Every structure is written in structure tokens, then in C-alpha cells.
């Protein structure tokens, strides 16, 4: 009787195995069918070219060049960096490592002498041509160092083929002398005729209110508000060969501009600057309204920080509703004029920062890394991995493949032979798996973050199942 019993057991085990395999196939089929219900959102519609920052595609030094995904910017400061005049040297010591990591540009704080001298972060400018070489406002050096140290930093960055962007504050001034002002009938702190450099002398005629009007689009903090309609202001800011813009670009060798508080003046000002001076430019128009951001960027002929994206990420990642990432953002309107960011020197609200970086470094626009996130607060190896993925895999137009409260999957559709990628973000507390449609048939893929050890092969219809760790992300592309 033992043999029939053994035979019966084997038959039952085999039948159970067949049932289990069949059931798994049914479950996978159901899971795939469920994913197919999500209507893919084709977000952008263009020829697939990456964001251009003006970095050449070749380098005489063999250093950084723009990669298939475009560039990555480093905000090379934070609010209240250490005083003492050593910041330019600190940044200079890091540019080689940043270049090796794939950073293509650095954004420096306002470099000229401001009212608070050695203690100022530069946003209260007095003398645009004092880079730490004149004894005024209580110091010779700025908070960040001397002119020689700044020049050395810019040279070191250029040796790595890294562009250097100047933070330009042209809405307001501070640190002028008091003078009688016939337009206000009072004394105002608008006498800048005695600046130590002797360049860009200005007085009450160059500030609102004056003969050109009572005000422009916005003043800031009670500081004297520059009047860009005044010929003296235009001449010294962007028209003269020895004026601010052209001196910064041609003599100091800055490659571009971050315009501070552009809500304070009309977009025609940045447009005129760009037309006369050139270089990359991005404006700080602090507004979550994507219509306003697009309006400003178009009229200024400039890139703009994507505050619409910033606030959507904050709500999505910290509010546990990743479906909000389907909403409108500047990079979706015009990826070639959108500079994305997770944190800056003014605002630091997003808690799940690595998820946010995985978003901006796989999506379109020009992503910015914040100094303290990179050097102090987050895992540098993970950020370097995301930078590499951005530069080498984040190519082409964007399609959203799936989204709900805690899952988001998007595809970069590739460009010029580069296959693109699929990014999977999971804001839940458990591993997630999902079927998605790639652009690759019968092809083995892998997670280039290493967060998943799967090496799945896409089906003939380009569908494949991928996974994502809890509170994490995975980024998939062809295994090559």
C-alpha cells in the first residue's frame, strides 16, 4: 500500500504546484490589468533635447561637460555661512570633487561689498565693484573673502569646466549716505556718490520716488529702490562696457546670473540685461502660480526658479499625496526655462528631501543641489548617484505612468539613442510592486540606484513589473 499512497501524494503535490503557478499567473495578470487602467499622462511634447546651460560639449581640460541629461547646479552657499572671509576658499577647495560628481555650475552669493561689510550676506549692496579690496562699511574683505580669492575660485571652477553664476541684487541698495531729497521733501539714504570704487555713483535721482514716478513693481525692506528707468542706472547696470554686467562677465569671468527678488521690477529689466550682457540667467520670482512664472520667464527671456514645482513637492511628499505631482509646474510648461530645487537659502520646508531630489534629478528642467543638503545633511553617495543618473539617463520627454497617494511612476522617453529611464517613488512604509509599460521590448533592465536587486526582462509588449523600497525610490533603465 505504500507505493499507491506515495504516488497519490506526488500527484497531489504536483497538482498543487500547478495550481499555485496558475494562481500566480492569474494574480500577475490581474495586477498588470489593474495598472493598465491608469491613463498615461504625456507631460511634455518637444524634440527631447536636454536643458542647455551653455556648457560646451567638449572640454580642453578633459573635465566636466554637459551629459545627455543636461547639467546640475550647486547652490554654493547657505544663509549665514561662516564669517571671517574664508568662504571663497572653502568653495574653491570643493570644485574638483563637485566636477567629478557631475556638477556643471555653481551659484555664488552676492559677491560685492554690502552695508554690513564683513558680516553681510550681500543682499544689501552698497558698492557693486568692491569685491573685498576697498576699506569701506567697516571692512576690506567681504564676509566671503577678498577679490583675489574670488578670482581664484572662479578660475578653479573654470579649470573643471564648471560655470559660475553671480547672485545679482539690482532691486534695492543699502549703505548710502543721507541727503536732502526734493522728491520726498525729507532726507533719504540715497547718496552713493562716494562709493570707494568710484564706479556707479548714484543719488536720489536714481531711486524712487523721482522724476520717473513714485514707485515701480515693488520695493524691499524699506531699502532705497533703484529706478531702472533712469539712464544712469541702465548705463551702469547693463549698457556700459565697464558697467556691472559686462565687468562681471568679461573681467571677473562670471558665466551667468541669479537675479534676486525680480518681483521688485518689470521683466523688461532682465530682458534688457540679457540682451546687452548675455550669459545664463534665472530669476527668483517667488510665486507658486505657474501662469505667473511662465509670464515672467517669457517676458524676461530668462529661466525662472520653479516655485510651483517646489510647493507641489512639499504637499506631495510631506502631505502623502503623490498624485499632486500630476499638477501643473513650470518645467511642464517649458522645461527649457525651469530651474528646479528642493531647498535654498530662504526656504527649507520639504522633509522627505531624498524623495524630492529623486524627483527633480529624474525629471526635466535644470536641477539645483543645496550646499548643506550635499555637504552636511543628506547622504552624499546617494546624491552623487542621483546626479549620475540625471546626467546619463534622464533624457527625453516625460510621461507619468501611475500615481496615487503613496506611489508615483514616471518615464523619461529617451533622446538621441539614449534609452531614458523609469523612476518609481514610494512614500509608503512597505515595499511596493507595480506593472508599468516601458519603451523597451524583451530587454533586461535594472535599478541604477541599487535599491532593488531585481533584473527583470520586459515583455514583448514592453510591460514589466518593478519594485520600490519603503519611503524610497528606484530608477530603472536598460542594463548596459
Automatic annotation (TrEMBL):
Xref: CDD domains: AmyAc_arch_bac_plant_AmyA (cd11314)
Xref: SUPFAM superfamilies: (Trans)glycosidases
InterPro entries attached to this UniProt entry: A-amylase_thermo, Alpha-amylase_C_pro, Alpha_amylase, GH, GH13_cat_dom, Glyco_hydro_b
PROSITE patterns per the UniProt record, alphabetical: PROKAR_LIPOPROTEIN
Record's keyword annotation contains NAD: no
Signal sequence segment: 1-20
Co-factor requirement: Ca(2+)
Superkingdom of origin: Bacteria
Domain Glycosyl hydrolase family 13 catalytic per the UniProt entry, residue ranges: 71-387
Record keywords, A-Z: Carbohydrate metabolism, Glycosidase, Hydrolase, Metal-binding, Signal
Family that this chain belongs to: Belongs to the glycosyl hydrolase 13 family.
NCBIfam families, per the entry: PRK09441.1-3 (NF006970)
Protein name per UniProt: Alpha-amylase
Organism phylogeny: Bacteria, Pseudomonadati, Bacteroidota, Flavobacteriia, Flavobacteriales
Amino acid at each position: 500500500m505504500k507505493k499507491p499512497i506515495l504516488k497519490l501524494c506526488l500527484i497531489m503535490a504536483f497538482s498543487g504546484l500547478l495550481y499555485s503557478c496558475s494562481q500566480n499567473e492569474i494574480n500577475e495578470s490581474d495586477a498588470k490589468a489593474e495598472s493598465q487602467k491608469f491613463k498615461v499622462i504625456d507631460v511634455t511634447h518637444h524634440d527631447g533635447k536636454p536643458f542647455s546651460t551653455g556648457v560646451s560639449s567638449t572640454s580642453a581640460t578633459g573635465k566636466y561637460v554637459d551629459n545627455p541629461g543636461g547639467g546640475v547646479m550647486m547652490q554654493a552657499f547657505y544663509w549665514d555661512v561662516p564669517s571671517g572671509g574664508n568662504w571663497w576658499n572653502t568653495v574653491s577647495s570643493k570644485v574638483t570633487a563637485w566636477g567629478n560628481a557631475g556638477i556643471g555650475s555653481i551659484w555664488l552669493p552676492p559677491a560685492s561689498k554690502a552695508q554690513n561689510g564683513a558680516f553681510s550676506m550681500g543682499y544689501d549692496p552698497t558698492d557693486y565693484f568692491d569685491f573685498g579690496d576697498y576699506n569701506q562699511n567697516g571692512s576690506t574683505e567681504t564676509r566671503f573673502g577678498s577679490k583675489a580669492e574670488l578670482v581664484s575660485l572662479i578660475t578653479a571652477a573654470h579649470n573643471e569646466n564648471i560655470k559660475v553664476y553671480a547672485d545679482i541684487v539690482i532691486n534695492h541698495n543699502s549703505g548710502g549716505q543721507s541727503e536732502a531729497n526734493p522728491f520726498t521733501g525729507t532726507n533719504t539714504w540715497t547718496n552713493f556718490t562716494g562709493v570707494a570704487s568710484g564706479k556707479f555713483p548714484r543719488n536720489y535721482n536714481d531711486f524712487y520716488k523721482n522724476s520717473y514716478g513714485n514707485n515701480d513693481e515693488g520695493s524691499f525692506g524699506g531699502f532705497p529702490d533703484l529706478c531702472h528707468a533712469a539712464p544712469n542706472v541702465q548705463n551702469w547696470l547693463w549698457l556700459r562696457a565697464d558697467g556691472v554686467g559686462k565687468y562681471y562677465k568679461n573681467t571677473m569671468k562670471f558665466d551667468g546670473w541669479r537675479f534676486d527678488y525680480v518681483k521688485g521690477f518689470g521683466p523688461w529689466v532682465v530682458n534688457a540685461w540679457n540682451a546687452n550682457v548675455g550669459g545664463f540667467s534665472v530669476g527668483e520670482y517667488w510665486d507658486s502660480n505657474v501662469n505667473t512664472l511662465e509670464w515672467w520667464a517669457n517676458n524676461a527671456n530668462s529661466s525662472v526658479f520653479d516655485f510651483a514645482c517646489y510647493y507641489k513637492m512639499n504637499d506631495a511628499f510631506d502631505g502623502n499625496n503623490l498624485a499632486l505631482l500630476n499638477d501643473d509646474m513650470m518645467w511642464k510648461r517649458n522645461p527649457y526655462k525651469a530651474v528646479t530645487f528642493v531647498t535654498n537659502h530662504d526656504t527649507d520646508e520639504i522633509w522627505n528631501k531624498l524623495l524630492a531630489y529623486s524627483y527633480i534629478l529624474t525629471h526635466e528642467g535644470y536641477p539645483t543641489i543645496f550646499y548643506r543638503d550635499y555637504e552636511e545633511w543628506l547622504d552624499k553617495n546617494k546624491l552623487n548617484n542621483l546626479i549620475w543618473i540625471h546626467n546619463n539617463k534622464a533624457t527625453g520627454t516625460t510621461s507619468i505612468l501611475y500615481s496615487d497617494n503613496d506611489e508615483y511612476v514616471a518615464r523619461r522617453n529617451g533622446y538621441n539613442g539614449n534609452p531614458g529611464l523609469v523612476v518609481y517613488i514610494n512614500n509608503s512604509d512597505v515595499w511596493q510592486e507595480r506593472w508599468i509599460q516601458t519603451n523597451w521590448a524583451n530587454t533586461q533592465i535594472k535599478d541604477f540606484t541599487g535599491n532593488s536587486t531585481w533584473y527583470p526582462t520586459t515583455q514583448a509588449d514592453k510591460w514589466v513589473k518593478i519594485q520600490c523600497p519603503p519611503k524610497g525610490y528606484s530608477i530603472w533603465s536598460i542594463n548596459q
